[in-house]
Amino acid sequence: MKTRVLMVCLGNICRSPLAEGILKSKVDPNKVFVDSAGTGSWHIGSEPDRRSIATAKRYGLDITDQRGRQFSEDDFEDFDHIFAMDNSNFRDIMSMAKTDEDRQKVHLILEEIFPSENVDVPDPYHGGEQGFENVYQMLDEACEEIARKLNNGTL
Ligand code: 4NP
User: Fold this and answer.
1) Among 7, 8, 14, which residue has the most ligand 1 atoms within 8 Å of its CB, making it the best to mutate?
2) Ligand 1 pocket residues where CB is under 6 Å
3) Which of 40, 72, 75, 131 has the highest count of CB atoms within 10 angstroms of its CB?
4) What CATH number is given to the structural domain containing 12?
């Protein structure tokens, strides 16, 4: 059985598509399935933001085949680990959880590199290109740690 990991942000066009692409590049696809979703519905069916696509491309990652989808209650059944990009996403996901088992699956992604500091991956949507680079660097570090834990069985 593959371990199933879901990356969640608000729109599923900027941050979580990058997180999905980055983590996929660091794990064995035969062992780990990675997907992403947004808590909002605006970008269902959309490609990632062109700035996320360009940022990923600079690091050799192609995320153009991703399409936006909305997070749903079924995702608690379908995934083992759910990583929220920020505190607002975290609250929205938690508000849909029904059981303690559901709630235990949900983590703030930057807790992986800044434990107990409650740090958000900032939403880069209304900013410039630098915001996307900044998001990439944070997610690359966090995904490195997630991949390390997946590999040694501690996640
Ligand atoms: P994301 O960024 O949550 O990182 O995908 C956003 C993209 C679009 C919107 C908000 C955040 N929006 O309001 O359309």
Assistant:
1) 14
2) 9-15, 38, 42, 123, 125
3) 75
4) 3.40.50.2300
Percent of the chain with pLDDT over 90: 99
Residue 143 annotated in active site: no
3-state secondary structure 58-112: HCCCCCCCCCCCECCCHHHHHCCEEEECCHHHHHHHHHHCCCHHHHHCEEEHHHH
User: Is 123 in the active site?
Assistant: yes
| Total structural domains within the chain | 1
CA nearest 65: which of 85, 31, 35, 104? 35
135 CA: nearest ligand 1 atom: 4
pLDDT single digits (tens) 64-95: 999 999 999 999 999 999 999 999 999 999 99
State pLDDT tens for residues 36-71. Answer: 999 999 999 999 999 999 999 999 999 999 999 999
